[in-house]
Structure formats: C-alpha cells, structure tokens
Amino acid sequence: MWVSGSWKWTLIKNLRKSKLDNIYIPLSYKTRNIRENEINWVDAHFINKETFYSSIQKWEFLEYAMLYDGDELYGTKYKDLIDNGIKKWKIVIKEIDINWLNRLKKEYPDFDKNYTTIFLDIPTNIFEKRIKKRGAFMNNDEFNRRKNTMIFEKKEAKKICNYIINANDDEKTILNKVLKIIKEKLW
Asked: Which domains does the chain have, with CATH numbers?
C-alpha cells in the first residue's frame, strides 16, 4: 500500500532486480492511458473500460477501484494473484487499495496470520512536490482528489497496516527496509 508519489514503481522495479528469487509481483489491470516510459504487459495490463467491466461481471477481480469519478479503473485479478503467486508458494508483493484491504481483513479473520501489509508513507509537502512534478497529466481537481485520498489512506494505514515505511528516504534505503521485513517474515 502506498500514497501517490511514494516511489512505488521505483520500489517495484528494485524488488524485481533484488536477489529474492521467489518473489512475484502481479501486474495491475488499468484503463488509464499509458504514461511515458511505461510498457504494456510489463508495467501493467492496460485495457479498455469494456474489457475491464466484462472482467468485473465475470468475477475475475480480487479487488478493483474506480478512481476519479470512474474515469480510471484499476484492479488485480484472482488468477494473477492466487494461481500465479500464492499457489506456487511465491512471495507475492501487490499494491492494493486501502478500502479493499479493510474489506479483506474483515472477511478473512486470519488475514494477518498469512499476510503482511506495508504502507509507504511520505509527508504531505513531499507528496505535493512529487505530484506537481507530474503536473503534465494532472489538473487541479485530480491533484486535490489525490491529496484527499492520501490523507484518508494515511489515517487508515495507521489503523490496519503491519508496517509503515517512510518513503521520503532514498530508494536504496526504502528497498532495504522492505527486504528486511520480507526476510524477517520468511525466517
């Protein structure tokens, strides 16, 4: 879990390069436009809304979210997470919406025995600075929605996440903190 601007993609790319050979990072399905430097089926599965809605109707998603008044849809498919990760005894690392995490924890009382949740947090001023750097694709309304979402996510994370990591540190420090948690949980 993480707020916008917490360098989640940098962390994911660094985790993929790490020496943990049993790691699996399933890709999200997204309906938004591909950004510069993103590659379809490498960084995410970029699909159209009709295909996304069809997958919802077929109950293919473990979790999904409609963001920004339904303009963008994001989700994680059961098959990717369960069949390609958990059933193969992989260390699965997956970003998940805070609302879905709350729901999963309520529906599965043993959730915390089997899963560890990490939240990447940044101070509000750093959030604003990093998001404004991306300003080319974001208007003021979207910026304010993301900021309000960040405030909500930070409050919820403090209640339900096992670990909260300061993502204001450099990328190597963040990676090492996450790897330390993973290794502690494995042994």
From this structure: 1-21+93-187 (3.40.50.300), 27-83 (3.30.63.10)
